[in-house]
Amino acid sequence: MIARLSDFRFPDAAARLYPDTPDRPWVLEVGFGDGRFWPHFAATFPEAPNYLGVELSGVSLLKAHRRLRDAGLDNAILTKMPADVLVRSVIPHAGLDLIVVNFPDPWPKAGHTDHRLLRVPFFQLAASRLKPGGMILLTTDHDEYFEFACEQAEASGVMRVESTDPPAAALETKYALKWRDLGLGVNHARFIPTAHQPVPHGPTTPYPEDPTTVPHAVLTLPDTFNPQTFEKVTERNPGSRNADEGGAWTVILLDLYAGLRRDGWVVLAHVVEGELTQEVLIGITAREDGTHLVRLAKFGGPIITTGVKAAVGVVTRWLEGQDAVVKHHGY
Ligand SMILES: C[S@@+](CC[C@H](N)C(=O)[O-])C[C@H]1O[C@@H](n2cnc3c(N)ncnc32)[C@H](O)[C@@H]1O
């Protein structure tokens, strides 16, 4: 099954995601590519563990989905988003038994190591999300990234490193076969948490069922409001040190569209928060009492983050700049 970010809870629970098999171990694979690892690895268990796969590539997602469906792996969920977002916002504390990373992108160029997944912050996050006895398995052909990851795990203060042989299934992935054909060897390590300090999930919530709690504002537009052009608007916030108050965000209002069916407009906004980006629509709709409602639309399945609430604020402030008078802030 394929899940979108908006299909999850923040944090979620294995019992909700896998209602038929809630008591099985829970395995996360990061960057599953075309999905060859899981059918091989799952077959080494008497019953397939619950599986969550996260990938950035939509093409890979579809290939892997077909492969897992054909293998009859019903308790497998695939999702397309950055791994960091999934692990931080969706995975509960002490939720996972295993995190598998096979042949992660090595970002080999000088100055690009900040793009690597396996750095101190990810190890600390992973230690918080793994159960006692859980671990991360890394298999990679890239010697330099392997050493870097081992150093980062030690530096995290919450992981110990064991070098062992990779599971056979990790040698059957598309990249494993590619490196094998080139005659290259692989490195494998287990990263085992030595502490499970909780890392907060942040203030993310699903799109509310109750419309009154959707981020919004109520305002009066001047009679003269009839925009014929729109200049892009960008606002940035460097973020709070307190993760529960949300991190840095950038909001770009890209365009404004007039409704043809009823009195109103829609703003297209691009919201960036670390690895997470969302394109959201914010409606500006006439109400019976003559005021207008500025509200985040459900279209596109947005989740409510600090940056998405801020986007409603950016639209509201832009309208104030067009002489609107705000009656109520609800964001
Ligand atoms: C070198 S490929 C390896 C694919 C597969 N594991 C294999 O062994 O064949 C790395 C994969 O990780 C994915 N990826 C890179 N960064 C990611 C991230 N932050 N979150 C999720 N997937 C990511 C890429 O899209 C790519 O498919």
Gist?
The protein has helices spanning 14-17, 37-42, 58-70, 83-90, 120-129, 143-155, 174-181, 306-320; strands at residues 2-3, 26-30, 50-55, 76-80, 96-102, 130-140, 159-163, 187-193, 216-220, 233-237, 249-258, 264-273, 276-286, 292-296, 325-330. The chain is an alpha/beta fold.
Explain the overall architecture.
This protein has 2 domains: 2-193, Vaccinia Virus protein VP39 (Rossmann fold, 3-Layer(aba) Sandwich); 211-330, no CATH class. The protein is 23% helix and 30% strand. The chain is built from 8 helices and 15 strands. Strands 1-4-3-2-5-6-8-7 form an 8-stranded mixed sheet, sandwiched between helices. A 7-stranded antiparallel sheet has the order 10-11-12-13-14-9-15, with helices on one face. The chain is elongated. 36% of the residues are buried. The mean pLDDT is 95. The site of S-adenosylmethionine has 20 residues, from strand 3 and helix 7.
Topology:
Elements: E1 2-3, H1 14-17, E2 26-30, H2 37-42, E3 50-55, H3 58-70, E4 76-80, H4 83-90, E5 96-102, H5 120-129, E6 130-140, H6 143-155, E7 159-163, H7 174-181, E8 187-193, E9 216-220, E10 233-237, E11 249-258, E12 264-273, E13 276-286, E14 292-296, H8 306-320, E15 325-330
Parallel strand pairs: 1-4, 2-3, 2-5, 3-4, 5-6
Antiparallel strand pairs: 6-8, 7-8, 9-14, 9-15, 10-11, 11-12, 12-13, 13-14
Residues 30-33, 54-57, 60, 82-83, 102-105, 117, 173-176 line the site of S-adenosylmethionine (SAM).
